[in-house]
């Protein structure tokens, strides 16, 4: 692994964990009223597009796939919370 790939993986890791505190707080409080549905939908769509790009690139762009795959899953969790934690 060269240093450029290491930097990409580190950046991918940092980007991926940005949603973890939000998902944890939403799960803990059972409240997502302040979260914008449009923002969650935009994030979900953009990560799906980045996943397709990273996966079908030749060679596969591992940092792009890992980061966006994880963020995609977290955004799906937030969408799930948005519809199940309604008051």
Automatic annotation (TrEMBL):
Q: List the membrane topology term(s).
A: Multi-pass membrane protein
Report if keyword Membrane is assigned. Answer: yes
Transmembrane stretches, by residue range? 6-24, 36-56, 62-81
Kindly state one GO CC term assigned in the UniProt record.
membrane
Localization, per the record, is:
Membrane
The entry's keywords = Membrane, Transmembrane, Transmembrane helix
| InterPro entries (alphabetical) | PQ-loop_rpt
Q: Does the keyword Transmembrane helix apply?
A: yes
Q: Which Pfam families has this protein been placed in? A: PQ-loop (PF04193)
Where is the major localization of this protein? membrane
Protein name listed in UniProt:
MtN3 and saliva related transmembrane protein
């Amino acid at each position: 692994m060269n240093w450029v790939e290491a930097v990409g993986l580190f950046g991918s890791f940092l980007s991926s964990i940005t949603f973890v505190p939000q998902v944890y707080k939403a799960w803990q409080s059972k409240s997502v009223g302040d979260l914008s549905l449009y923002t969650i939908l935009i994030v979900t769509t953009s990560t799906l597009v980045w996943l397709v790009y990273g996966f079908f690139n030749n060679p596969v762009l591992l940092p792009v796939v890992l980061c966006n795959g994880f963020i995609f899953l977290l955004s799906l969790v937030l969408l799930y919370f948005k519809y199940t934690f309604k008051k």
